[in-house]
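User: Can you recover a sequence for this backbone? Please restate the input before giving your answer.

Assistant: Of course. Working from this structure:
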């Protein structure tokens, strides 16, 4: 990264500082793995993330936070975080992506955070969003949220030069996706169902040779959609999302957050438009990252931290000492 200009954009030092925030949240949540205590683990991650954010030399505002949908403790939208000095930034957080997976010690629970220049992240309310995502290397507009599953899958298979039978779609295992799952299988593609964690599901599309996932389809949380878009901005890929308000009250919330067209189809660049730093730390072992390891008074973490402006992707393995009295060394 020699010779990299730090303006315009975020300060380069924030890349590793942001990683420390997700590491702290992951360690806190991992202490409660397998206890069946979803809300307690989420609260522990929230508290640890908030404490670490307070140390950063930023003037941050949470624009994507924990939401009412899960009735969980929150880093709430509009909360001001940071040391009160330094650049003004927008922050999107999911202190524990996959609370159920953490509670069951199931794979792919993560602590996730994205930080951008002010105004760089879509202010998405806590509701469902319909999403489609693929990895890098394809012509722009290859897939489209308004096309049928068969049309998208055939276009992707043609671009890859493989039969559609070699395409696998990642979809959240939810009753609402029954018709989507049937359509994908009828088109001739395979389906990998995941119980939770659609941020990881979107990221998996960037390395199908390793993950076996070619495309992400279906609805999940809108906050997670913005976080996933932030990650793809750094790695490369394509993503579209459309909010799915369930009633008049949710439609009013969409407009209150400055989105006049409730049916608007957002591109990845519209959801994460400015210089973005994305960090995720494994809580449980998964396809993306190893989970936290505890060894006496030591904790070991694995984190992926990325920046859109430079396209830099770092995998960081860190050992923390004396975690009995502090999370971060």
């Amino acid at each position: 990264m020699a010779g990299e200009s730090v303006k315009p954009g975020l300060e380069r030092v924030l890349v590793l500082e942001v990683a420390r925030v997700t590491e702290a949240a992951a360690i806190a949540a991992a202490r409660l793995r397998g206890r069946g205590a979803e809300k307690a683990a989420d609260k522990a991650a929230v508290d640890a993330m908030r404490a670490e954010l307070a140390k950063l030399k930023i003037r941050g505002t949470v624009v994507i936070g924990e939401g009412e949908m899960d009735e969980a403790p929150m880093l709430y939208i509009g909360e001001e975080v940071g040391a009160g000095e330094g650049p003004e930034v927008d922050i999107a957080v999911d202190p524990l992506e996959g609370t159920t997976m953490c509670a069951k010690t199931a794979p792919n629970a993560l602590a996730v955070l994205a930080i951008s220049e002010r105004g760089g992240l879509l202010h998405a309310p806590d509701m469902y969003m319909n999403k489609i995502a693929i990895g890098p290397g394809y012509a722009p507009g290859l897939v489209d949220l308004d096309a049928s599953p068969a049309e998208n899958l055939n276009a992707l298979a043609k671009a890859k030069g493989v039969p559609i039978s070699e395409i696998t779609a990642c979809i959240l295992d939810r009753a609402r996706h029954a018709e989507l799952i049937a359509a994908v299988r009828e088109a001739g593609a395979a389906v990998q169902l995941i119980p939770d964690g659609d941020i990881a599901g979107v990221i998996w599309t960037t390395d199908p040779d390793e993950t076996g996932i070619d495309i992400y389809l279906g609805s999940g949380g809108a906050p997670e959609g913005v976080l996933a878009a932030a990650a793809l901005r750094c790695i490369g890929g394509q993503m579209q999302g459309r909010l799915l308000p369930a009633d008049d009250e949710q439609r009013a919330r969409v407009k209150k957050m400055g989105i006049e067209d409730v049916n608007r189809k957002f591109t990845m660049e519209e959801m994460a438009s400015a210089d973005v730093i994305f960090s995720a730390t494994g809580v449980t072992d998964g396809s993306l990252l190893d989970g936290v390891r505890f060894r006496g008074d030591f904790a070991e973490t694995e984190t992926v931290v990325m920046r859109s402006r430079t396209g830099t992707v770092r995998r960081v393995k860190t050992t923390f000492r004396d975690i009995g009295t502090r999370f971060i060394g």
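That completes the design. The chain is about 30% helix and 25% strand.
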